[in-house]
């Protein structure tokens, strides 16, 4: 009997899962809320690590194609203090330990690797009902439905599948990222472009920080990090570009003009990204016919590992299914034990990195972390 596999969410993890299964002749259907592949922007640069993300792409048979999409020189990293002085700089050595790629390019690579019909667009998951025997019925916002012998929640932070296995919900960490963009920076924003350099920039300090990436076409993509309550976020009208940018920039009074310009000179309204997380070491008892991967399973503060963890989850789950055809429960149990272990370790590192960036010891704590090789890996 063929097992029907439903994957909720066409993010990187869900797509890797579908791709690796496809390579082994196992069909899966991905249900995605977005109406089309280009329905929304897909975020900025991702650094794909040797020990997880790159292994997942190798399992998916896409490693060489991935290398062709990597941004040359983007592994360069630098750290400045609030006055713009260089504290640390690391050149791109070309070894490819954490090559950078646009999330949208990586997602497109995965989408194009799947057979026609494998992804059902415009299927926003509304509810899931257990049918017994490990089977589940998915009901979508458009009124349609589907049934599956195996349901995988790859549907992110606010997963509709998670409640089937866990009562935990993401909670606000006390930190918000505010996202800004500067276009044509080498011509229009030269001082800021010079500050960011050729790759990624870190400017840590107690309670506030600026992180930025250089993207293709001279785009500077910035995340302004602030330890602030949710009430602070609610008080700002982020749709009012000028007032919102001024309010956020006011938190960085006295910082180097080139750094403040990453906020004040933004080309569009800033976007608030409150950071939420599940408890570190989040896990659950085995529930027949359902599991989670990526942020649905282990949402944590940004550390450069989120996309990598989602992809290795997808590859690992697929390989467990392939190795145990006919025994789905054994496959899920094996996958979950490995996933729980690696995500718990990653959550500890993510918390440590956030504290190093924004804790009382910053920027020295961040420098110490870089010098011990733990940051940016």
Automatic annotation (TrEMBL):
Cite the FAD-binding domain residue spans from the record: 3-344
| UniProt EC number | 1.14.13.-
Transmembrane listed as a keyword: no
InterPro entries, per this entry? FAD-bd (IPR002938), FAD/NAD-bd_sf (IPR036188), TetX_monooxygenase (IPR043683)
Query: Does the keyword field hold Electron transport?
Result: no
Binding positions (FAD): 47, 103, 295
User: Where is this protein localized, as stated in its record?
Assistant: Cytoplasm
Q: Which domain of life is it from?
A: Bacteria
Query: So where does NADPH get bound?
Result: 40
Keywords in UniProt for this one? Cytoplasm, FAD, Flavoprotein, Monooxygenase, NADP, Nucleotide-binding, Oxidoreductase
Q: Which reaction does it catalyse?
A: a tetracycline + NADPH + O2 + H(+) = an 11a-hydroxytetracycline + NADP(+) + H2O
Summarizing the function annotation, the protein's role is: An FAD-requiring monooxygenase active on some tetracycline antibiotic derivatives, which leads to their inactivation. Hydroxylates carbon 11a of tetracycline and some analogs.
Which family would the database say this protein is a member of? Belongs to the aromatic-ring hydroxylase family. TetX subfamily.
What is the protein's quaternary organization?
A: Monomer.
Q: PANTHER family, alphabetically?
A: FAD DEPENDENT OXIDOREDUCTASE DOMAIN-CONTAINING PROTEIN, MONOOXYGENASE ASQM-RELATED
Query: What does the record say about domains?
Result: Consists of an N-terminal FAD-binding domain with a Rossman fold and a C-terminal substrate-binding domain.
Q: Which HAMAP family match?
A: TetX_monooxygenase
Know the name of this protein? Answer: Flavin-dependent monooxygenase
Q: What is the native source organism of this protein?
A: Massilia aerilata
